[in-house]
């Protein structure tokens, strides 16, 4: 039986929609991985009584664990530690050693900010070193420590109430601290009843989500027993993710299911170990013999280069890129022919291919990617509507893959989805799955809305 | 006194973090505009008892209005209308005319999918035409109608309970229906008594959040009465946002507070009208006489170009950019001198400035931005640690601003924060706030952790 948890996301700026919450969904997924079901995510402002009400509500729902994010900062409206202490009936005490460790973190900051008021810093230092008696401290990643606060007989819901895991708001601090919390006895005790689950992810690219729903039905028609598997599918940045949770004993059922998906979807299944397309492309470029890559982007304006260089160590294989937004830049920087631009226009197969070749020529790379399209909202025509994008991935020897995409969504969607399609095309080309020249460089039907079947 | 509302977002996919919710924040902002405080946003799965528990919780908090999103679809797990009807003590009745209007919407659909099971369609048609007695129907945008369901003496919280506004999940249906709801008497009645609020946002760049907390205390020490103002501060991508809400009568208090912030933080206050740095830079470039811009990026790998081209219409002033990750590319594409690279290394003031000049020269722009740094996690040295970044913003006439940054955080933080600092430097340069040549191109103390005081 899965343990149940509630998540409380604090912060007026989240509640009021000023910033969108990334922690609630992230925590919900992490909980599911360890066999804990999130019953509710409650977003509250910085009003103490609202936070207290949310804690009471979740405790009343009988959850085993409450995870809070945010409200650990230095300012007066950061009250989570204090409220949780009160809710669990535990007094706040100054943790001397913790105070010193936080001071040590703040010191370099203060030298960097000569005109910082030392009193203000001391106040926030002291505030962040106040710990509910009996709570487990999670070492600060930023300046705020996290807390695992068990229930107590003096608590609002007594000794049988939920344990509260208190985490900071910035994802960069919250995520490592979540992992640290797993190691604490207090956390383990809270979810003691939780079944251990296996958690597997398969990723497919190039088919609509409805197709996967169809596959699940087909699997059962074929007599596969999916009952022991908890399967959720979702569409993410144009890729289909099949996440499956099951108890260790159900491993054979999962193996049969995975084999079925492999069999049925073949090439479209690009990841069985949860690895992302970004990781796979990096591995292919950074392989035994490194292959270097360069980009020439128009409508994506540098997003693909940014995505390729997002990974540590990418300097080993990313030569660089050209952002050729204006036609003049396409000609001057990427060597696109003016004649071609006049004849077929900037958004065309020819220009995408010349951009890819230009990237290789100008940056001396083994692989080149050319992108040109209409991201919108303006600039669309009946022949070249918003969402029309040409992507070409070329090798130095002239072999290539070129695709025309018709992407749905707004400007940001079109730009982001284009980088995803490009990443998958790069993977295919690096795996040697190129267009058949006989086919005339790849006959290219329009790509499906999901982001495009590649190859 | 502000009316208070609760928001319930339904859907297992949202709860489990598979898809991220856009409706909660959107509704929260719309509510705030009409002077209604969102007390809580609760995300629940498709379990009826969880939805019911969320409604009870919010009603117990004494909210005047509950807005639900989702759960109005045709499938069995879409139960919102039924649960809300039960909660409000109102029976579901088939609305004949509504049934016919929905049927009219479904007809073309059925012709488009001939193999659609007519019985299934009839079922969902009927299901979506069931209306709680006494509720106000909001015409379907998709196939599902919205509902405004007032409390009743038979309801879980009696005649004094909250009104429930039931909206569909898809934002493109929810958003127009929200506007339609404003026009209904039932909705108006629910939030009668809502105070109209003013809402102002100030943005500062280059100071830590603790400094703002300090300023608020200082303001009160100076005898400013902040009591009539509801002030929240938050740190976003290295900028501080001060959001203040107040009743119209408190305008003079806000004026004094704004003047105090202006006085105390001067140049660091870059926005008093809520405009973002991206919008300000776009306005400055796209002004009466357009000024064009180009970039030459190393460690940010195209992120700045992508950020500049993120806005519709940016093709009017963005010439393009160079992503010069390798030294060879810095020389070949941006015209950085090999001698300089050997003498001072790639991460240096000189190279940043040559990159900015190279961007102008190669792309023929009025403004050039050069970025070079150590994004990490590898590549750091004692002299050039991870987080050290040089940014130079130059004009075609050779005037420029160059800064050295020491940025905290991981690779993604360093890269993102660098683009924010660069945007602020671009703004300064476009406003003519350049380095004093006498100063030797701008004496540059290390930049503070928050992202750097610029200028």
From TrEMBL, chains A, B:
Residues 433-455 are annotated as: Disordered. Keywords: Hydrolase. It comes from the Bacteria. Gene3D superfamilies: CinA-like (3.90.950.20), MoaB/Mog-like domain (3.40.980.10). Residues 6-189 form the MoaB/Mog domain. CDD domains: cinA. InterPro entries: CinA (IPR050101), CinA-like_C (IPR036653), CinA_C (IPR008136), Competence-induced_CinA (IPR008135), MoaB/Mog-like_dom_sf (IPR036425), MoaB/Mog_dom (IPR001453). The keyword Hydrolase applies. GO terms for molecular function: hydrolase activity. This is CinA-like protein. The lineage of its organism: Bacteria, Bacillati, Actinomycetota, Thermoleophilia, Solirubrobacterales.
């Amino acid at each position: 039986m899965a343990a149940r948890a509630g998540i409380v996301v604090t912060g007026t700026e989240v509640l009021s929609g000023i910033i969108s919450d990334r922690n609630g969904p992230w925590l919900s997924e992490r909980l599911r991985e360890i066999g804990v079901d999130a019953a509710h995510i409650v977003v509250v402002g910085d009003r103490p009584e609202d936070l207290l009400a949310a804690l009471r509500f979740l405790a009343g729902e009988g959850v085993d664990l409450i995870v809070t994010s945010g409200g650990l900062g230095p300012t007066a409206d950061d009250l989570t530690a204090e409220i949780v202490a009160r809710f669990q009936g535990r007094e706040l005490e100054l943790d001397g050693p913790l105070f010193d460790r936080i001071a040590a973190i703040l010191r370099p900051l203060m030298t960097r900010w000569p005109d910082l008021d030392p009193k203000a810093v001391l106040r926030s230092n002291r505030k962040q070193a106040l710990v509910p008696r009996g709570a487990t401290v999670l070492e600060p990643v930023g300046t705020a420590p996290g807390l695992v606060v068990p229930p107590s007989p003096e608590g609002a819901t007594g000794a049988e109430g939920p344990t509260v895991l208190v985490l900071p708001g910035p994802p960069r601090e919250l995520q490592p601290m979540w992992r640290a919390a797993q190691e604490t006895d207090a956390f383990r005790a809270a979810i003691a009843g939780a079944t251990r689950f296996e958690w597997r992810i398969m990723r497919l690219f190039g088919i609509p989500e409805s197709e996967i729903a169809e596959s699940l039905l087909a699997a059962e028609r074929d007599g596969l027993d999916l009952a022991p598997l908890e399967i959720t599918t979702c569409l993410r940045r144009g890729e289909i993710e099949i996440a499956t949770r099951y108890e260790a004993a159900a491993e054979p059922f999962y193996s049969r299911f995975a084999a079925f998906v492999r069999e049925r979807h073949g090439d479209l299944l690009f990841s069985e170990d949860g690895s992302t397309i970004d990781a796979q492309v990096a591995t292919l470029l950074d392989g035994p013999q490194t292959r270097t890559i360069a980009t020439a982007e128009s409508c994506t304006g540098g997003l693909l280069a940014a995505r390729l260089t997002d990974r540590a160590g990418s300097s080993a294989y990313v030569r660089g890129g050209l952002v050729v937004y204006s036609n003049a830049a396409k000609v001057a920087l990427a060597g696109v022919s003016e004649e071609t631009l006049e004849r077929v226009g900037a958004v065309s197969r020819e220009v995408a291919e010349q951009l890819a070749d230009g990237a290789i020529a100008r940056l001396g790379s083994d692989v080149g990617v050319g992108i040109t399209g209409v991201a919108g909202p303006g600039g669309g025509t009946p022949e070249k509507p918003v969402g029309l994008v040409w992507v070409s991935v070329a090798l130095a020897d002239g072999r290539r893959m070129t695709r025309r995409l018709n992407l749905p969504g707004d400007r940001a969607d079109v730009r982001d989805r284009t980088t995803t399609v490009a990443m998958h095309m790069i993977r295919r080309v690096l795996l040697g799955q190129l267009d058949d020249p006989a086919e005339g460089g790849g006959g290219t039907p329009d790509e499906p809305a999901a982001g495009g079947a590649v190859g």
